[in-house]
Amino acid sequence: MPELPSLDTDAGFLLARAGGRAIRELNRALEPSGLRSRHYTVLMAAAERGGLSQRELSTLLGIDPSAVVALVDDLEHAGLVRRDAHPGDRRTRLVVLTGKGKTAFRRAADHGTKTENNLLAPLDPAERATLISLLRRIAR
Question: What sequence ranges are listed for the domain HTH marR-type (predicted)?
Answer without folding.
Answer: 8-140
